[in-house]
Amino acid sequence: MFFVIPDESKQSIEKFMKKESLHVPVLLDNGRKVNRLFGVWALPTSYLIDRHGMVRYRVMGAQDWTGTEAISAINHLLKEN
Amino acid sequence: MRANLVPIVIFVSFLTLQGCAELRPTSRNRSLIPLQKADLEAVLAENEGLEVTWEDAKDVRDFYRGGVQQKAKAEKRFQEKVYLEALKFYRSSNDFFSKLLLYIRGDSAEYFLFEGAHILFFPDLLVADNYFKMGTIERTLGHEEEAQSCWKRSFSFVQKSLQSEQTEWGLSLERKISNSLESKE
Question: Does the first or last residue of chain B, that is N or C, have fewer Cβ atoms within 10 Å of its Cβ?
């Protein structure tokens, strides 16, 4: 799991991560190249990518990743070969 | 074997620290947009990357991206003079754009996505360009009636584009279409 954050300084991201107690790798997307390659047109947007590199789920907007639906989607992918 | 080397599931989340995202067009810029700011190459480059298939397209922006990506394939075949393949991709591109145009109208050189992010948004002009090139192919194949029909459609779409945004790109295409319509074989 990792975050992609466009056009933010390393300092402000570190401050945010510390404040929210998040311990997740962050890709600094200055210039929004990764945003463009994924075709992101709203923030936040999350993607679940399977072991074959295929995007299987996309969620635009805030999402409770501890909820039943999200856990079910992740479990479904984990069971696949 | 290769599957064992990659993580089982990758979770990627694109975030902003600045607040909620929103989608709204910026106010229309009525000044002439030069080719350096808006042209086909720039639009194609903006939509490279993760491919949108018809089955996966859900939102209007997906249909725009899908339409541009199909157009990129068509342009390549057109350059290679593989005309029947090119026609197939131009039609597919127009299918994506047609779906989009049911919901959103209005070309824009600065379409607002979210804070600090704008894109070139030219569905009408891209459809016009598709029909123009389809007409060129039809004439090359000796189908004059189909060619004229494509150019008439092209002209209608370029007019819609120019009503929304005055671009050098659109004006140039308008001239090419007019010349083609006047030059009956």
Answer: N
